[in-house]
């Protein structure tokens, strides 16, 4: 088991979120891409405006690193037209993986037809262009019942509309990593959340993201059955692998 091949190394802050200048943010992004190339992670996950830069660096380095980006991030409440436009732009720039934020607020408000339509359309565009598609449910914004229902809804849209051979390319993903909970409660890939997702999304794969910080956290997620881990601590996790191989 090569843990690095589970890791979507992630840097999704804007310059203002990071509290630095635009130029300095580009330096952070470049360093993250270089590190991901060097470390042979599965993928570098960056904001859409940096996809072309990542592709150029990867080409120059003759690396197999994949590039992922986020669509309608982090709130997921744009209309379908905006989501599709962002997805097409990311595809044009060469992104390999498209991590869409579900319109989870609409789902919570009972607008099931809207969310079904965006899942169908977004997945269609991704798969037609040979991309991997992930649907972020923003688990911390949902009740347990809603986590179960939304995971199952995504699964049902996919199995009713796509071929079995496509299932492995459509993930259900836990979190943006940007959701602020009241009282600072855990906002990401907790064990109970991931178990509910795995049980209800299968046969679709699950990506654990949000708060996965250590080698132990990552191994726990892999043992549960996730196929990818999105994390801003990929190097720490990979370094943990040097000392103990728990598999
Ligand atoms: O998609 C991945 C998340 O943004 C990563 O969250 P994290 O910063 O808690 O590792």
UniProtKB/TrEMBL annotation:
Protein origin, superkingdom: Bacteria
GO molecular-function terms, A-Z: deoxyribose-phosphate aldolase activity
Keywords in alphabetical order: Cytoplasm, Schiff base
Gene3D superfamilies: Aldolase class I (3.20.20.70)
Cytoplasm as UniProt keyword: yes
Database matches in Pfam families: DeoC (PF01791)
Keyword Cytoplasm: yes
GO biological process annotation, one example: carbohydrate catabolic process
InterPro entries: Aldolase_TIM (IPR013785), DeoC (IPR011343), DeoC/FbaB/LacD_aldolase (IPR002915)
This enzyme's EC code(s): 4.1.2.4
GO cellular component entries: cytoplasm
Regions annotated as coiled coil: none
Protein name: Deoxyribose-phosphate aldolase
Upper classification of the organism: Bacteria, Pseudomonadati, Bacteroidota, Flavobacteriia, Flavobacteriales
């Amino acid at each position: 088991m090569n843990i690095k091949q589970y890791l979507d190394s992630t840097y999704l802050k804007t310059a203002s979120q990071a509290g630095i200048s635009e130029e300095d943010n580009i330096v952070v992004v470049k360093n993250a891409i270089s590190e991901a190339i060097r470390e042979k992670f599965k993928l570098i996950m960056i904001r859409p405006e940096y996809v072309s830069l990542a592709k150029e660096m990867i080409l120059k380095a003759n690396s197999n690193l994949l590039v992922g980006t986020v669509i309608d991030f982090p709130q997921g409440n744009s209309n379908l037209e905006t989501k599709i436009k962002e997805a097409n732009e990311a595809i044009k720039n060469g992104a390999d993986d498209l991590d869409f934020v579900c319109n989870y607020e609409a789902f919570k408000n009972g607008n099931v037809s809207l969310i079904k339509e965006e899942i169908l359309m977004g997945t269609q565009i991704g798969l037609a262009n040979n991309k991997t598609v992930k649907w972020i449910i923003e688990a911390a914004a949902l009740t347990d019942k809603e986590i179960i229902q939304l995971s199952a809804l995504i699964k049902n849209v996919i199995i009713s509309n796509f071929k079995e051979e496509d299932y492995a390319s459509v993930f259900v993903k836990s979190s943006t990593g940007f959701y602020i909970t009241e009282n600072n409660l855990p906002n990401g890939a907790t064990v109970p959340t991931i178990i509910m997702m795995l049980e209800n999304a299968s046969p679709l794969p699950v990506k654990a993201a949000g708060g996965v910080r250590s080698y132990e956290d990552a191994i726990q997620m892999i043992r549960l059955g996730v196929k990818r881990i999105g994390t801003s601590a990929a190097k720490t996790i990979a370094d943990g692998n040097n000392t103990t191989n728990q598999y």
